[in-house]
Design a protein that fits this description.
Chain lengths: 192, 134
């Protein structure tokens, strides 16, 4: 088994090659050699397209999850003897990894989550930028599989990120001492 | 950071690293296809899968490249086939042709500074990042 639970995003059918999304997922499913494939949160179009593409040996492994009751039926009651972990709707990666480690389910509330990190057991640390909740879920499962800790950092922002990369890539070609090309990086952001 | 540990950075674009002291790290994009990238990585590391077979080394020899020397020393005894581009041979045209036409499992680039052509290489790399995002 590669990991306890590998999570993959659903297909987005974006141009110019929407079928490439299906092929990449099909290939990933074949590589991971899963015991079960759970599909949830997918539109009928995405579900039908994915199942039509999957290799024949994988098709019997597919289970579509649509309701909370189906999730409850999947869970192993002996695994969740402890009371559920109460967690907010933010920083869900930290909450998920804590719950996995403590073998507890999660009860989400509207209260903000506590700001904390999960320590590493193996020496590896996963640092995940916020702003993409599914990425946090994937990162938490990845960290759990590796015995790694998890630390979330604030969303850097696409615009600032692109601008900073632009400067780094341009360092060798621009005159840094020209007033219009002088850049400073401060703790609060990026000033020109 | 754990002592003698390592880090996986998952970000939207910035390839973050940790230094002073330097910590081995890798970088993944949080969007798109983060899950697929992880699955492919785990799958490639399984004991029944072939290890790294073809390695491309690119060293324009503009700086001391300890990682290139280490790769040359460590990988061949482990059965890796190495294709190397040194000095003036590590130019944008030849490296781009190699990237497009030849198979490789691992590529190590010391640094690319080729007079008059660095902008072209930079644009090519930037376009690749844009493609990854979509």
């Amino acid at each position: 088994m590669l990991a306890d639970l590998a999570v993959v995003e659903g297909p987005r059918f974006l141009p110019p090659d929407p079928t490439a999304e299906l092929v990449r997922r099909n290939n990933a499913a074949a590589r991971v050699r899963p015991e079960s494939i759970f599909m949830t949160g997918l539109s009928d179009k995405a579900f039908d397209a994915l199942t039509a593409r999957l290799a024949s040996p994988l098709k019997p492994l597919i289970r579509r999850i649509s309701t909370m009751e189906e999730i409850d039926r999947l869970s192993n009651p002996t695994r969740f003897k402890k009371p559920p972990l109460t967690w907010g709707n933010d920083r869900i990666g930290i909450g998920l990894l804590k719950a996995l480690r403590e073998r507890r389910s999660i009860a989400f509330t509207d209260e903000p989550s506590s700001v904390e990190t999960v320590p590493s057991k193996s020496g590896h640390l996963v640092v995940c930028e916020q702003g993409e909740p599914l990425a946090e879920v994937i990162a938490a499962n990845y960290a759990y599989a590796l015995g790694a800790g998890l630390c979330l950092i604030p969303d850097i922002g696409r615009e600032f990120s692109d601008e900073l990369l632009e400067v780094f890539y341009s360092l060798l070609t621009i005159n840094l001492f020209h007033p219009a090309r002088r850049y400073e990086i401060s703790g609060s952001g990026f000033a020109r | 950071v754990p002592e003698c540990g390592s880090i996986t950075f998952i970000t939207g674009g910035l390839p973050l690293r940790f230094s002073v002291p330097e910590v081995p790290s890798t970088h993944l994009f949080k969007y798109p296809d983060l899950g697929i990238a992880m699955i492919n990585g785990f799958a490639a590391e399984q004991s029944d899968r072939p290890a790294i077979g073809f390695v491309a080394l690119v060293d324009p020899e503009t700086t001391k490249a300890h990682e290139i020397a280490a790769a040359e020393r460590l990988l061949p005894p482990r059965g890796a086939f190495i294709r190397a581009y040194y000095g003036s041979g590590a130019n944008v045209s030849d490296v781009t042709s190699m990237m497009e036409l030849l198979p490789y499992d691992l590529m190590i680039i010391a640094f690319i500074i080729t007079s008059g052509a660095e902008r072209i290489f930079y644009l090519a790399e930037y376009d690749l990042q844009e493609m990854r995002r979509f």
